[in-house]
């Protein structure tokens, strides 16, 4: 279906080659996963396939890429829409119209497809993606998962043979992600469409995948069956890490596989005790009877929460459950209808300037929002000034998180993970008592996540309390000491991490599912117990 | 029965506006205003643009009141029945010709009132049409050649809310960095522009990979565009003539002909297709014909029969449509 022959890509004014001498072939009708570290070029690889690179971005390109025999060098992306379609990382940014039905026909109208055919295809596509109840809705009123499905539908109406998706589930909660992936899998099975997706959260997609393209660096790109690739890849989902930790030669793809083949290997060991927070630890955050409304809509209803120093609390729940509202109310950014919020005994609304940042560090969902300088060096200098700390303090923290980063780079040119580290360094410069992170793992690979986990655990060894909102169950399992689950603006569960995560099917990490009913959470726990057993 | 094609609503509104400007009889003006308000109120939906009428009425009333107050304060010397007198203020010499205070005559008030009522009616008729015609459907109903302009407008209107949230986010981010000093170009506007640019690039990528402009690479624009340009210039000249003297008809008819043939030609070459195009049925024709007749009636002198006929013609949409039930 897609053939790459000796493809080389270089961007002008950049030292690094993006791809060098790439040759591979993707067969028709498969579900293909593109994986690799952040910045390895996954998005670029997808855009090469439909010609956006280099037609739209520029760059020096050699070699040939053919889609069903059509050369992308000779055809612009708009002339390939009947063959190949792409859905970007944030579908909301790519919407051209403002209602679902109009979005679905936008492409077909441009192609001049006859009104009768259009009508038929719209109805078919609405049914296929279960969007019929939403057909007249405004796009802005849809949830993240629904927007993603509309974006898929809007390209499917043009009957492409190949569908490319760039991190389709990174912003979604586990249930919505599952829905989108099941839809994609149906397209592969029922319509014979070739689906190619780039994704970091391997644990979510692995069970659907027929083939893996592994982008290690610019001239090593391997393609193969998941079993072959994951035998020795540096990146692996928890389920395969578990298999490796248990010294099994199996490469399980699904939780079911793993239960059958490797779960017995963990029988001799038991999960380590998680140490509880001492009751004498001082309270950092106290929320009592907090209610927040947006107009008529109640965003948070009568929330009470107390968090002590050295606790790491994960806030989980569906998209729109009120996680971001709860987090932003902790820094005093929301109008409170009722109740109170206190951080180390003070009202965050009354904190300003240096006082605020020395009490609360907040990393927003779009971490780049906090950056506005033209280079990393300038950003670090600004941070020292804003925080009123000695020169070089922020840089010292950054070097700990990210030993090698060119300080002359523009913050926007950093990878997602590097940018998060920079923001974290700035926020931590004055060691705040409360550190808040809103969805920190969006677009982060396993390495970047590990770095983040290390950074956070170091922070907490001091007297800081940490609050993280996240959809990423694996991250929560790795790092949190306590989980708060929100639904419709109310707290529905609040307890120790092992208790909450193991009791709910939606939030259970892979290791838990494989080794149930024993209360395991992470691979590192298994490794630790194995180590203790052997000594 | 259903709502009308948006272009039919606009034709109705524009015809009524033309009718108001071709009469000076206050009763006929009042009839047109009444008919417009009744039709609009009984056929408008809950959509945001439906409030155009009430906004229009507010603006028009404001204009009416201001105009009357000015007419009373600044008198114009002349004959007529004096209603009352205001004390005259002596103005400096360089303001000769302007009179503050003085006699207020019935004739002057009458004349000013009719002048202002015409403007009032004009605003109300156009406001009525804009609250009835769905602006997005109007854009979609435009001929295919104008499609690109329509898409640009739609994108622009959907981007405004994004822009507002961006501004809010950037302000919050500054607070989070402990920076609440005065406005700073570098810290507020630079991130905003960067984000807008990035958004535009993503949008362009998305449109490109969905086939936007596919037909443009096939079709060549040339002669039809020239024809349309000539037509528009002609129409402008004709309107100017209409405003200065009466001799406009021939120019207007010829230029409209040229413009229309340009549009049709370009439209035939443009092979974009339209999803669920709004139908144009006999109701639309009926409304347009009756509105055109209303213009003719407005030229006649006032008598009870012409008044009733005018009212019926203006409220024709009431007879052929029914209130539309909108989905949210």
Verbal overview:
The complex is a heterodimer of chains A (535) and B (328). Chain A is α/β, with parallel strands linked by helices and 535 residues long. In chain A, 37% of the residues lie in helices and 23% in strands. Chain A has helices at 42-50, 52-55, 91-94, 100-111, 115-128, 144-156, 174-191, 202-205, 226-232, 238-245, 255-261, 323-330, 353-359, 376-387, 393-401, 416-428, 446-460, 473-479, 497-503, 510-515, 523-534; strands at residues 2-10, 17-26, 31-36, 60-67, 70-71, 84-87, 162-166, 194-198, 211-217, 220-224, 283-294, 297-308, 312-316, 338-343, 360-363, 434-438, 465-469, 482-487, 490-496. The N and C termini of chain A lie far apart (53 Å). The mean pLDDT of chain A is 89. Chain B is mainly alpha-helical and 328 residues long. In chain B, 67% of the residues lie in helices and 5% in strands. Chain B has twelve helices and three strands, in the order αααβββααααααααα. A three-stranded antiparallel sheet of chain B has the order 1-3-2. In chain B, helix 2 packs parallel to helix 11, helix 6 (147-176) packs antiparallel against helix 7 (185-208) and helix 8 (223-244) packs antiparallel against helix 9. The longest helix of chain B has 30 residues, at 147-176. Chain B is globular and about 75 Å long. Chain B starts with 5 loop residues before the first helix and ends in an 8-residue tail after the last helix. Chains A and B meet through helix 4, helix 5, helix 13 and helix 14 of A and helix 6 and helix 7 of B.
């Amino acid at each position: 279906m897609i053939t790459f022959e000796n493809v080389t890509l270089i961007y002008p004014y950049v030292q690094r080659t993006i791809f060098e001498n790439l040759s591979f072939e993707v067969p028709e009708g498969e579900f293909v996963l593109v994986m690799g570290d952040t910045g390895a070029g996954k998005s670029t690889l997808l855009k090469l396939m439909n010609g956006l690179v280099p037609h739209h971005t520029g760059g020096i390109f050699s070699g040939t890429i053919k889609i069903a025999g059509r050369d992308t060098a000779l055809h612009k992306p708009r002339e390939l829409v009947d063959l190949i379609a792409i859905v970007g990382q944030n579908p909301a940014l790519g919407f051209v119209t403002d209602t679902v039905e109009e979005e679905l026909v936008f492409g077909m109208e441009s192609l001049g497809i006859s009104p009768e055919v259009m009508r038929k295809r719209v109805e078919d596509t609405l049914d296929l993606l279960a969007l019929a109840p939403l057909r007249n809705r405004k796009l802005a009123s849809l949830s993240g998962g629904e927007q993603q499905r509309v974006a898929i539908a809007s390209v499917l109406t043009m009957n492409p043979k190949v569908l490319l998706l760039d991190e389709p589930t990174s912003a979604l909660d586990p249930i919505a992600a599952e829905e989108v992936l099941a839809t994609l899998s149906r397209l592969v099975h029922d319509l014979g469409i070739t689906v190619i997706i780039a994704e970091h959260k391997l644990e979510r997609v692995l069970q659907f995948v027929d083939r893996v393209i592994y982008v290690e660096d610019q001239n090593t790109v391997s393609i193969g069956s998941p079993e072959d690739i994951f035998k020795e890849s540096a990146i692996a989902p928890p389920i395969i890490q578990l298999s490796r930790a248990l010294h099994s030669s199996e490469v399980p793809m699904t939780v079911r596989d793993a239960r059958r083949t490797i779960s017995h290997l963990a029988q001799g060991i038991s999960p380590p005790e998680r140490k509880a927070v001492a009751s004498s630890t001082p309270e950092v955050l106290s929320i009592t009877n907090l209610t927040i409304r947006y107009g008529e809509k109640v965003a948070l209803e009568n929330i009470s929460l107390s968090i002590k120093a050295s606790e790491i609390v994960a806030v989980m729940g569906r998209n729109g459950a009120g996680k971001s509202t709860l987090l932003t109310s902790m820094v005093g950014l929301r109008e409170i209808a009722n109740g109170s919020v206190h951080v180390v005994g003070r009202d965050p609304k009354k904190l300003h300037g240096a006082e605020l940042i020395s009490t609360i560090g907040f990393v927003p969902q779009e971490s780049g929002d906090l950056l506005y300088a033209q280079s990393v060096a300038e950003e670090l200098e600004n941070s020292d000034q804003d925080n009123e700390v000695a020169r070089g303090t922020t840089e010292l923290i950054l070097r700990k998180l990210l030993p090698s980063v060119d300080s002359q780079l523009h913050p926007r040119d950093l990878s997602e993970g590097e940018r998060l580290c920079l923001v974290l360094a700035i926020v931590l410069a004055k060691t705040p008592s409360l550190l808040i992170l809103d969805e920190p793992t969006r677009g982060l690979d396993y390495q970047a996540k590990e770095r983040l986990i290390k950074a956070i655990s170091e922070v907490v060894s001091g007297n800081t309390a940490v609050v993280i909102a996240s959809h990423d169950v694996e991250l929560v399992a790795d790092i949190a000491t306590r989980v708060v689950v929100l639904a419709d603006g109310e707290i529905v569960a609040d307890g120790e991490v092992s208790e909450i995560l193991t009791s709910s099917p939606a939030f259970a990490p892979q290791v838990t599912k494989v080794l149930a009913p024993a209360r395991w959470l992470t691979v590192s726990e298994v490794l630790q117990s194995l180590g203790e057993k052997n000594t | 029965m259903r709502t009308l094609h948006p272009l039919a609503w606009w034709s109705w509104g524009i015809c009524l506006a033309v009718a108001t400007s071709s009469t000076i009889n206050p009763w006929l003006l009042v009839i047109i205003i009444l008919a417009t308000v009744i039709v609009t109120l009984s056929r408008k939906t809950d959509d945001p643009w439906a409030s155009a009428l009430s906004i229009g009425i507010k603006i028009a009333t404001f204009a009416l009141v201001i105009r009357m107050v000015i007419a009373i304060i600044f008198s114009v010397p002349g004959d007529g029945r004096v209603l009352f007198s205001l004390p005259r203020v002596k103005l400096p010499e360089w303001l000769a010709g302007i009179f503050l205070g003085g006699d207020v005559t019935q004739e002057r008030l009458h004349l000013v009132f009719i002048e202002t009522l015409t403007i009032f009616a004009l605003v109300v008729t156009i406001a009525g049409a804009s609250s009835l015609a769905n602006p997005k459907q109007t854009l979609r109903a435009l001929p295919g050649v104008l499609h690109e302009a329509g898409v640009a407008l739609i994108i622009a209107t959907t981007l405004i809310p994004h822009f507002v949230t961006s501004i809010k986010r950037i302000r919050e981010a500054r607070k989070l960095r402990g920076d609440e000093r005065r406005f700073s170009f570098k810290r507020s506007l630079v991130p905003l522009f960067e984000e807008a640019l990035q958004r535009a690039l993503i949008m362009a990528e998305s449109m490109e990979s969905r086939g936007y402009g596919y037909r443009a690479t096939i079709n060549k624009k040339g002669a039809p565009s020239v024809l349309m340009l000539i037509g528009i210039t002609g129409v402008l000249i004709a309107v100017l003539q209409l405003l200065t003297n009466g001799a406009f008809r021939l120019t207007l008819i010829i230029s409209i002909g040229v413009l229309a043939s340009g549009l049709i030609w370009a439209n035939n070459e443009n092979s974009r297709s339209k999803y669920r195009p709004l139908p144009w049925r006999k109701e639309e024709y009926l409304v347009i014909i009756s509105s055109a007749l209303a213009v003719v009636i407005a030229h006649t002198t006032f008598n009870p029969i012409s008044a009733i006929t005018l009212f019926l013609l203006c409220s024709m949409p009431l007879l052929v449509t029914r209130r539309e039930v909108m989905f949210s």
